[in-house]
Amino acid sequence: MFGIALSLLSWVGLNPIPYIAPLIGTTEPALKLLVSILMGYPLGIVYNKYVRKYAEFRNLYFIVTGIDMAFYNFGSALIHNTIPAIVIYFTTLLFGPSKMNTIITLVFNMTYLLVGYMMTESEDYDITWTMPHCVLTLKLIALSFDLWDGQKLSRGIELSATSKKTALTQPPSFIELIGFVYFPACFLVGPIFSFKRYMDFLSDKFPLDKESGVYEQQAIQRLIQGVAYLITFQVGVTVFNVKYMLSDEFWDTSIVYRHLYCGLWAHFALYKYISCWLLTEASCIRFGISHNGMEKTVNGDISKWDGCNNIKLLRFEGATKFQHYIDSFNCNTNHFAAEYIYKRLKFLGNRNLSQLFTLLFLALWHGIRSGYYVTFFNEFIIMFMEKEFESIISKTEIYKQMWSNSIISYFLYAFLKMYTIIFMGWSLAPFDVKVISKWWRIYSSLYFSGFIVFLPWAFLYKPLLIKSLKYFNIKKVEQNTQ
């Protein structure tokens, strides 16, 4: 009940948070959020030591601690996170786990979230009840799809392997649903996970006693990594900040410097999200909800606890193309988008169209500011060019020879690493500043370089590349027919 305790201290003027926040260069809401995220870890320890042995109190523990956390951060506005849960509970009772229930859940939750954005959003980075609500929106939409998939499964309709794993043949009870909504380890910033995982966790299907030493060690590792990334973020934003990119002084620097600065700013800005995800993943592991099967090693079978992993650090830090960022960053949201949006748009008969609508959904999910839509449009045009460019160039002999040469491969890696850093900055800038007046100023200072590089690909660069390969008689790699 740390939230109520700190709230009581605030009412009598003894809460240290308002005094500590400016000392460490942050805001009071941001520090309250960080304290709440960090509290997930000891709550996991308490759960395993004292609560888990009483099965009937497990959901109650999650509800009480989660609501306490919500009250501390958002006060009475926490009711907004409860209303959609109540709605899906009653629509499931009324319509059953059907297609109609799924449509109602999707439309209601997205509408509720967008109205919330309109009521609370400003040009700054806001920490309001819409933050956990955007996570909740995906969780409840996924739940409705999983219930619908369970109905299909009971009627003998074939499902994909992934859908079979998450399909639900029984709807949740009310207390299970509220426990799922307010699960304290990831209520505020994610990651999202399926209701099936939650029920497996409650039903003792994960080897928490047998593998306690393994998951406790992995939880500590993630906690340390989260703290390290948080410190790096705090240092990074003192050197690279968006206010400088909006200043007149930024225009006085060289175009190369501006691109490098913007890229490095974005890289450190992403550490804000990475640190939060690492800290919440540490809490999820410590609770024991992250179990992900067993892995064979030279030392025998070892349990895996990466089921709530939202960031793949090595892939992210070593990224040399934007697909690496997609594979490594915000993994659970990307999984949701792939399974519940992209694949469900198969009826469109066009992958690029399905991807465009998926990115439009994600932009809408983030908010109504123009910067979100520009960033996801950037992702679309970059990925479109990258995939086509790679499919053409990777089939040539010269491509294979260059990567097989150790010296040249180092230069290629350095070039591609610089490319991803620079254009990640270009892509992310609108997302961070949100409004057109700000991102247009930054793009003007960069001479709209990303649009020049990526937009003309299909009608200009691609034909030129194909003609050049033919003109210089660059051969394709011979396919192995054995």
UniProtKB/TrEMBL annotation:
It is a multi-pass membrane protein. GO terms for cellular component: endoplasmic reticulum; membrane. GO terms for molecular function: 1-acylglycerophosphocholine O-acyltransferase activity; lysophospholipid acyltransferase activity. It is an enzyme of class 2 (transferase). One of its GO terms (biological process) is phosphatidylcholine biosynthetic process. Belongs to the membrane-bound acyltransferase family. Pathway: Phospholipid metabolism; Lipid metabolism; phospholipid metabolism. Keywords: Acyltransferase, Endoplasmic reticulum, Lipid biosynthesis, Lipid metabolism, Membrane, Phospholipid biosynthesis, Phospholipid metabolism, Transferase, Transmembrane, Transmembrane helix. The keyword Transcription does not apply. This is Lysophospholipid acyltransferase 5. The chain crosses the membrane at residues 30-48, 86-115, 174-195, 410-428, 440-461. Pfam families: MBOAT (PF03062). Its EC number is 2.3.1.23, 2.3.1.n6. InterPro entries: LPLAT_7/PORCN-like (IPR049941), MBOAT_fam (IPR004299). Signal peptide: none annotated. Its main location: endoplasmic reticulum. It is found in: Endoplasmic reticulum; Membrane.
